[in-house]
Design a protein that fits this description.
Chain B: This is Sarcosine oxidase subunit delta. The complex is a heterotrimer of chains A (about 425), B (about 90) and C (about 1000). By secondary structure, chain B is an alpha+beta fold. Chain B contains 2 helices and 6 strands. Chain B has one domain (about 1-90): Folate-binding superfamily (Folate-binding fold). Chain B has helices spanning about 35-45, 85-90, and strands spanning about 1-5, 10, 15-20, 50-60, 65-70, 80-85. With about 1000 residues, chain C is α+β, with helices and mostly antiparallel strands. Classes of the chains: A alpha/beta (about 425), B alpha+beta (about 90), C alpha+beta (about 1000). Strand 16 of chain A pairs antiparallel with strand 31 (about 580-585) of chain C, so a sheet runs across the interface.
């Protein structure tokens, strides 16, 4: 069924009787050509691209809980391609371009909103670093504008310009960046993949891999054994747990990242703003909540909840940046598992086990990567060669010393 | 979180800085034949368990001791805390 | 007016307030909600999506409807719940989320289009044409969405943060909480009793009970008096425990000043972090409603809330006292409201009970096996349709109380992700067994809501907690309670009759604020959005400001009915902090402005102020950036002057912020040899050496100097940014890697004031404060260090090191003498041209000399790139040495170069990328970037440093500095990074 305004009107006039299930709930088949472990944004986008872009069939997505229940189900929804390093920028720019046609590709309104992201700077050195980054963005066609303080005063007059501990000197704007409705992204891919025959199997947890003589044969699940020619693992914070079942240790730690939303408010913040002198970024959802976050708690955790000091730290930063939000109230907070890699950049690669592929290490930035991760991971699964834009995301970069460390923090995940 | 410091009693976790897996104490032998490969594993690979985790915390806003905390990463429950120096003593160093 | 007799209000203390510009009167003890009801105001707001008229639903913090804009000016608070807003003189409130007057909201047109705005409709449309989303659809949606509005002014009030520690935290001060607090208080435990209400007592305040031979309120007052008298008990009314964190830490907000016209001393709220060994969850329960067609009209209220308004606040929710009230219930609880209203002489239509065997407890009409099937009334309830014995019939009423059973407030018990457990007898979820450690549920929160049970479970919970705490526990004598009827049936919503098409079009609300109806749930089911999280996200159920407190369980039940599963099979949502909305101000400390981070001041700060210095933030430090002289109107004038003064005469700069680490011990030498990549073990006594530190992954981490002051005594310097981090790494290396080494390490950054004295005449200046130490070039050559005295006996450390490339020293004195020393130096050096200089000039001097700083050492760069690859000693092991030699780290070809514009008037802009002449502006042709740039008065043009592919082999090549971000393209010449004195003669002079 095509979604359209016309269809919405037609259904409204016929008591909505015609709406169909957005996707099936198929029982798992005994075997597939491709099994994607993880029904989050990355897994669903990978399955969709295997079917659509690479014309593959016999594909299943196995999801432990309900589809979209991982980080795609709770995140701060920012999409952007404002990276510095050559290993990253082309990949995220590909993702940005895919976001720009997301709705048309998937026939599902995931509310991609190119409202612009502003990274504020507070010192000359920060300005120079952002200039370097902004120019790197121009080199890949991603665009960007360097704003001075008076530009900012016009655009976001409610910032604390006059009594700030760290004066706001300007910002790097990427106008094409913005937000997307996170659940809508998962559902859009799920519906489109399902339409192409992908079996999305919910409540199906992978409990082990069947590997013989270095070759992967299938996966053990809570719903029985499923044979597979190729298995792609895309499970974010659970990466180490799943890959350990294949005997693989990863350059990844799992940490907790908290995110926050305020009660609904009339339009307040027009774009996405990140603070350069504290850990805080914010946008406003279409429903009216201020969606914001900051740094990870900083310790290994699978508990999916964080602690109070970071809540205070994040909101102190928010108040320092825009004291006019003080009378709004915090509505809800989350703690998600994030797969923090050792250089802050992801891995999309084969493993040493024939037929087992891995996509992970997205830290707290996997959401914006969903479309490009979907295409590049599918490319790797379908062709056994890395996609051009993801060629730097190999396991061996750590041993080769070809790191992609945007923050220059080194092999300490809680600093990325 | 509250860290049960072996000398100072319960202390707020905000006084501490977290480093990571206690395996970071086991720096490989730099003179080994396979030193480079061993260092690559040492620097980059982690068990990252969901459950019991032995990890290093530094009492930066306190007595500046490094502690080994045994903590459950699923529940955050702390099962043990000892000074790195005490651990090293036990190991005969 | 609908005020009736009784109530816990002070009729001698009238209060005037305004709502939507109209002035009203009420009494002390009223909430805004009870005050509005007392004045016959039923319509208080509009719903989120359809802008349907909304009235007060509840009497507590679960309120989804009665949200108002509270206060005015910078104190304007959006989405304030009228039901928990304590009334004060002059309170101003306005309704929100409407265009035009509340009664004639223009946005109510949405309701006419409701069929088009079904659950999830926006995912299916607004996709064409693409550009219209940002330009048209989204702005329209955003304007319509949201609820209240902010003032856009900084919050003017004060907020405190505090820490409390106790043995037992009791959350909720109703029957269970009071019994628990009294039991524990008498046992001598350190107790905190917190309640979100301004009056302790919980539901006891809202019921007409007697406890023993006293009214419930009297028992409450007696207990409170005793608790108040116990020094080990702290009573915290107006305090919400909003979250349970690890290891017995609770987040709490005390509303200290929200009930006052202006907060006392400006203090509005306090954020408490309460650490408690044990805790009792006695947070009570929240009543459910029963969806029926058009159940969302103002005047339809939870029956328990109606009882609370009658008993505690002496009001009924009718506009005229003559309007009868009806009760719709699926259990005995609704009948209690009927009885209490009857006792107050309120006109009662009767009780509509869904049960065939509906009981009757008093002299009122009972419609057994009956349902309310529809309602009428434009801005308030006018009539309900009762379907009784299969026959629908309209009845005029002024208000309807609805009772669908009670949900224990299990929220806090599942903050650690334990799943609440379904109880088939209670028809509700009760706290999980694996809740937060030490948290014991009691009373209605544990599903034990009858007063007798609440008292005894509260007491027993305290006894259990005392046992764990190792304190002697004794039962207290609890008042006698009457047995309470509490039977109910599982009746979740009134379905539309299958045959009647007209009826099928009518909507029954589940979530009032977000306008989620039974039909929306059915549509979610039809579209396979059946897992409870999909249901929630597809329909927005439970995502409003009340987080579905009155809606979620009912919705689960409706979904369970559709899927044929049980409610627990259908699922439950996770509760997450905060329990109710917490102001961002209290979490963030208010408008903290300059106090966001501490300011670290250098020892010479005071003096620099008197010299009119302009300061700049360097991390937490405030450093003098430059010292403008009268007549200098642009910073460049000051900086050029300062830089030239150093190169020509002598300048003085405070460099205290650089990290200083003091190392002593017989293995200090060996330790430093392992920390620094270059050889430190051979450093002679009285000498300084430049050193680089790597991270274990091989990247360049920090640079600085290492001075050997004694056989086993070193002082090393780090960059300002890494002062703490290098110290931490050293402690790690010592404690965790090499504990066998005998070395002690302390950070001495703040202990010593350190001044750079730089320039050809620096020795002359130094001589004037020197007590007689031989500082001649022969006795104290470049890279020497010594301890000496200056200014007739002041201990000091002297280092002959140079960041500027000139003859230079750094002198350290105890921090308290720093201010006096710089004052003295500038004063006695007047004839030598002694000039204070700041960080800006420091930067110019070091760029001219080609010294690296933070812009070059980014954590992404290596010793090799700086041209210092040879410094990584192969003769010994050090941190990072092995990894620095691997793979692409070893073949990295970027090198630090100097850059100069071909046209001397052109700028050099840091952050520009470097490309070959004539190459296309693209990533493939990117050959490096400019790290630092400045105007060099010495060179007479702008200059820069940068990393360039094979840079060391490209001296004299012309390249392009591309800055497309700002539309610049500038030709540069690649030169040596040493713009002055490349042979290093000056600093050895």
């Amino acid at each position: 069924m095509e979604f359209s305004g016309f269809r919405v009107i037609k259904e409204a006039l016929t008591s909505h009787k015609g709406w169909k299930a957005l996707w099936r709930d198929p029982a798992p088949q005994p075997d597939y050509d491709f099994v994607i472990v993880g029904g989050g944004g990355h897994g669903l986008a990978t399955a969709y691209n295997l079917a659509k872009t690479y014309q593959k069939s016999r594909i299943a997505v196995l999801e432990k809980g309900w589809l979209g229940s991982g980080n795609i189900g709770r995140n701060t929804t920012i999409i952007r391609s404002n990276y510095l390093l050559p290993g990253n920028q082309p990949f995220y720019e590909l993702s940005m371009k895919l976001w720009e046609r997301q709705e048309q590709d998937l026939n599902f309104n995931s509310m991609v909103s190119q409202r612009g992201i502003i990274n504020l700077f507070h010192t000359d050195a920060q300005r120079d670093a952002y200039r370097r980054r902004g120019n790197a963005m121009h080199l890949t066609g991603a665009g960007g504008t360097l704003l001075n303080q008076s530009d900012l005063r016009k655009l976001v007059p409610f910032l604390n310009f006059d009594n700030a501990r760290f004066p706001i000197k300007g910002g790097l704007l990427q106008q094409r960046a913005g937000t997307a409705r996170h659940d809508g992204v998962a559902w859009g891919y799920a519906r489109a993949a399902d339409k192409l025959g992908v079996d999305i199997i919910q409540n199906c947890e992978v409990t082990g891999f069947c590997i013989k003589k270095g070759k992967l044969l299938g996966v053990e699940t809570t719903r029985g054994y499923i044979g597979a020619k190729k298995v792609g693992v895309s499970v974010a914070g659970s990466s180490s747990r799943i890959m350990a079942k294949a005997g693989i240790r990863l350059p990844i730690e799992t940490h907790v990242l908290q995110a926050f939303v305020s009660e609904g408010l009339k339009p307040t913040i027009p774009n996405v703003i990140t603070f350069g002198a504290g850990h805080f970024y914010v946008s406003q959802s279409d429903k009216g909540g201020l969606v914001f976050g900051g740094d990870i708690d900083g310790y290994n955790s699978y508990a999916q909840r964080g602690n109070l000091p970071v809540v205070e730290e994040v909101i102190e930063s928010g108040m320092a940046l825009m004291p006019m939000i003080g009378r709004a109230k915090l509505l809800r907070s989350w703690g998600g598992q994030v797969d923090m890699s050792m250089d802050g950049s992801p891995i999309i690669d084969k493993t040493h086990i024939d037929g087992l592929y891995f996509n992970g290490g997205w830290c707290y930035g996997g959401f914006k990567a969903v479309p490009a991760a979907g295409i590049t991971f599918a490319h790797l699964l379908a062709t056994d060669t890395p996609h051009d834009t993801a060629a730097a995301y190999r396991f061996d970069r750590f041993n080769r010393g070809a790191l992609i460390d945007e923050n220059g923090a080194g092999a300490q995940p809680n600093l990325h | 979180m509250i860290i049960p410091h072996p000398l100072l009693g319960p202390r707020d976790a905000q006084e501490f800085t977290y480093l990571g897996d206690a395996s970071l104490m086991a720096r490989p032998d730099p003179y080994s034949e396979s030193a480079e490969a061993e260092f690559c594993n040492y620097v980059y690979l982690r068990d990252n368990p969901a459950g019991i985790h032995r990890e290093l915390w530094f009492h930066e806003q306190g007595d500046r001791s490094w502690l080994i905390i045994t903590r459950d990463t699923l529940t955050h429950e702390i099962l043990g805390a000892e000074l790195v120096s005490a651990d090293k003593l036990k190991a005969g160093l | 007016m609908s005020r009736i007799s009784g109530g816990i209000i002070n009729r001698d203390a009238p209060i005037s307030f305004s709502f939507n510009g109209q002035n009203y009167q009420a009494f002390e003890g009223d909430t805004l909600a009870s005050a509005l009801l007392a004045n016959g105001v039923q319509l208080v707001g509009r719903s989120f999506k359809y802008h349907r008229p909304r009235g007060i639903l509840s009497a507590g913090s679960e309120e989804p409807n009665a949200l108002v804009q509270l206060g005015r000016g910078a104190r304007l608070e959006p989405n304030a719940r009228a039901t928990v807003t304590e009334l004060y003189e002059g309170l101003t409130a306005n309704s929100q989320n409407h265009i035009g007057p509340l009664k004639r909201d223009l946005m109510a047109i949405n309701d006419l289009f409701a069929p088009f705005l079904s659950a999830g409709f926006y995912y299916k449309t607004f996709m064409w044409p693409r550009a219209f989303w940002e330009k048209l659809y989204e702005p329209a949606i955003r304007r319509a969405a949201g609820l209240g509005r902010l003032s856009f002014k900084p919050d003017p009030d004060q907020y405190d943060k505090g820490f409390l520690h106790c043995d037992l935290l009791v959350i909720g001060g109703g029957a269970a909480g009071l019994a628990a607090a009294l039991t524990a208080g008498r046992a001598g435990a350190k107790v905190i009793l917190a309640d979100e209400d301004f009056h302790f007592g919980g539901r006891l305040l809202s019921e007409s009970y007697t406890l023993g031979d006293a009214l419930a309120l009297e028992w409450v007052e007696t207990v409170l008096a005793e608790l108040n008298s116990l020094p080990n008990v702290r009573l915290m009314p107006r305090t919400t425990i909003f979250g349970v964190y690890d290891h017995g830490i609770f987040g709490a907000v005390e509303r200290v000043g929200d009930h006052l016209p202006t907060p006392h001393k400006g203090l509005r709220q306090t954020l408490w972090r309460i650490t408690s060994k044990q805790s009792i969850l006695a947070a009570g329960a929240v009543e459910r409603h029963i969806p029926f067609a058009n159940n969302d009209r103002p005047g339809v209220m939870l029956a328990g809330a109606m009882r609370a308004y009658a008993n505690r606040w002496a009001v009924t929710p009718v506009q005229s006292a003559r309007d009868p009230i009806a009760i719709f219930t699926n259990g005995d609880d609704g009948h209690r409201t009927a009885l209490d209203l009857l006792a107050k002489g309120v006109e009662l239509l009767g009780v509509i009970d869904t049960r065939a065997d509906a009981p009757r407890f008093g002299d009122y009409e009972v419609f057994a096996s009956a349902k309310v099937s529809d309602s009428k009334g434009r801005h308030g309830l006018a009539a309900i349709e009762i379907t009784h014995k299969g026959q629908p019939k309209w009845h005029k009423v002024g208000a309807l109380g609805v009772s669908g059973g009670w949900n224990p407030n299990v929220h806090l018990s599942s903050h650690h992700r334990g799943r609440p457990i379904w109880d088939d007898d209670l028809l509700a979820f009760v706290p999980p067994k694996d809740g937060p450690k030490g948290l014991i549920p009691a009373g209605a929160a544990a599903g034990r809501g009858c007063t007798g049970d609440a008292l005894s479970t509260g007491m027993n919970a305290a006894i259990t907690a005392l046992g764990i705490l190792g304190l002697p526990a004794h039962k207290i004598s609890l008042p006698e309670t009457l047995s309470e009827a509490h039977k109910q049936e599982a009746f979740w919503h009134v379905p539309a009759t299958a045959v009647d098409k007209k009826r099928q079009r009518k909507r029954a609300w589940v979530d009032f604020q977000n306008d989620v109806t039974v039909k929306d749930i059915a549509l979610a089911h039809q579209e396979n959005m059946r897992p409870v999280e999909h249901l929630k996200r597809w329909t927005t159920l439970g995502m409003a400001t009340d987080q579905g407190k009155t809606a979620n369980i009912t919705a689960l039940a409706v979904m369970a009915e559709l899927t044929g599963k049980t409610i627990p099979e259908t699922g439950t949502t996770i509760f997450r902090p905060p329990y109710t909305g917490v102001s961002l101000s209290v979490l963030g400390g208010g408008d903290i402005g300059q106090n966001f981070r501490p300011k670290r001041l250098t020892p010479t700060h005071k003096w620099a102020c008197t010299r009119g210095a302009v300061f700049v933030e360097a991390g937490q430090w405030m450093r003098a950036q430059y010292f403008p002289k009268p007549g200098e109107t642009h910073w460049r004038q000051s900086v050029d002057r300062e830089a030239l003064a150093v190169r020509a005469g002598v300048g003085v700069c405070d460099v205290t912020t650089l990290g200083k680490i003091d190392l002593q011990g017989k293995d200090a030498t060996e330790f430093l040899n392992r920390i620094y990549a270059n050889m430190m073990g051979t450093l002679p006594l009285g000498k300084v050496r430049y050193g680089i530190m790597l991270r274990e992954d091989g990247a360049l981490y920090d640079d600085g100097t290492c001075a050997r002051l004694g056989e086993n005594h070193y002082v090393v310097t780090t960059t300002t940014a890494n002062a703490g981090l290098v110290y931490r790494k050293m402690e790690f290396a010592h404690q965790c890697l090499w504990p066998e080494l005998d070395v002690q390490i302390i950070s001495a950054t703040d202990a010593w004031a350190q001044l750079a004295i730089a320039g050809p005449r620096s020795r002359e200046l130094l001589a004037r404060i020197n007590d007689g130490f031989d500082i001649s070039n022969e006795a104290f050559p470049f890279m020497s260090c010594a301890e000496l005295t200056i200014c007739q006996g002041l201990s000091a450390r002297l280092f002959r090191i140079s960041f500027s490339g000139e003859l230079a020293y750094e002198i350290a004195v105890p921090a308290r003498y720093g201010n006096a020393l710089i004052e003295r130096l500038i004063e006695i050096g007047q004839d030598l041209g002694a000039t204070p200089y700041g960080t800006e000039t420091l930067g110019v001097l070091r760029i001219e000399k080609g010294h690296a700083a933070g812009n070059e050492i980014t954590g992404q760069t290596s010793a090799l790139m700086l041209g210092l690859g040879n410094m990584v000693s192969k003769k010994k092991d050090s941190i990072g040495a092995i990894m620095s030699r691997r793979g692409e780290m070893a073949t990295e070809s970027k090198r630090l170069v100097g850059l100069r514009p071909i046209n001397p008037n052109d700028p050099v802009v840091a952050g520009s990328h470097l490309l070959k002449l004539g190459s296309v502006l693209s990533l493939e042709h990117d050959e490096g970037w400019i790290t630092s740039a400045c105007y060099s008065p010495h060179v007479g043009s702008a200059i820069g440093l940068g990393y360039l592919d094979r840079g060391d082999a490209r001296i004299a090549e012309h390249i392009i500095a591309a800055n497309p971000l700002e539309g610049q393209n500038i030709r540069l010449e690649v030169v040596s990074p040493h713009f002055i004195d490349p042979e290093g003669e000056r600093l050895r002079d």
